[in-house]
Amino acid sequence: MAHEECVFCRIIRKELPSFEIYSDSYVLALLDINPVSEGHTLVIPRNHSDNLSDVDPVIFGKMMDRARIISGSMVKSGFAEGTNIFIANGTGAEQTIPHLHVHVVPRRKGDDIELNRWWSSKVIEVSSDRMAEITELLRNR
Ligand SMILES: [Zn+2]
Q1: 71-118, pLDDT tens digit by residue?
Q2: Could you give the CA distance from residue 59 to residue 47 in angstroms, rounded to a whole number?
Q3: 101 catalytic per annotation
Q4: Which CATH superfamily is domain 7-111 in?
Q5: Ligand 1 center from residue 92 Cα (angstroms)
Q6: In terms of Cα–Cα distance, which of 83, 10, 96, 98 is closest to 41?
Q7: How far apart are the CA of 30 and the centre of ligand 1, in A?
Q8: Are 40 and 86 in contact, with CB atoms under 8 Å apart?
Q9: Which of 48, 99, 101, 103 is flagged as catalytic?
Q10: What spacing in Å lies between the alpha carbon of 9 and ligand 1's midpoint?
Q11: 20 to 30 Å CA-CA from 53: which of 17, 64, 77, 111?
């Protein structure tokens, strides 16, 4: 996607409005306009990266540290009781906006997100032989 058309690049250039909660020379944090809970925040790099495959590791570190700080603020202020940090990396993982973004999702006891129930329902069985094959495939790459 051309950066001129990228919705997050357009927000960074102030061509589109946003609910900005943090900004520095590397990252921007804004409220997600399709929140799954109140305060659902996105942390994005100022320089366009499609996803984890092309982000500068130093910038990625700054993104994750900002997600950590925002998460801490949400909990310390009493706005949330906990958070989930989430990245959809690539279209195969259902990334919908091709500009890397970290979700910080405020969570509260009794909210209806029920991530744990969803997760439990998706747990699959994998044999020990297959686990060993996967270990070989992924080790030290
Ligand atoms: Zn972009």
Answers
A1: 999 999 999 999 999 999 999 999 999 999 999 999 999 998 988 889
A2: 9
A3: yes
A4: HIT-like (3.30.428.10)
A5: 19
A6: 83
A7: 14
A8: no
A9: 101
A10: 4
A11: 17
Tokens found for residue 32:
């997600």
Confidence at residue 37, expressed as pLDDT on a 0 to 100 scale: 95
pTM for the predicted model, two decimal places: 0.93
Residue with tokens 């500009």: 99
Rounded distance from Cα 18 to ligand 1 centre (Å): 14
> pLDDT, tens digit, for every residue of 7-50?
999 999 999 999 999 999 999 999 999 999 999 999 999 999 99
Q: In one letter, which amino acid is 27? A: V
Q: Tell me what pLDDT residue 1 has.
A: 53
Instruction: State how far the alpha carbon of 119 is from the alpha carbons of 82, 113, 115, 124, in Å.
Output: 17, 11, 6, 10
Label the pairing between strands 82-86 and 41-45.
unpaired
Exposure on the CB side of residue 4, measured as CA atoms within 13 A: 0
Q: In 10 A of CB 110, how many CB atoms?
A: 7
- Rounded Cα–Cα distance for residues 126 and 59 (Å): 36
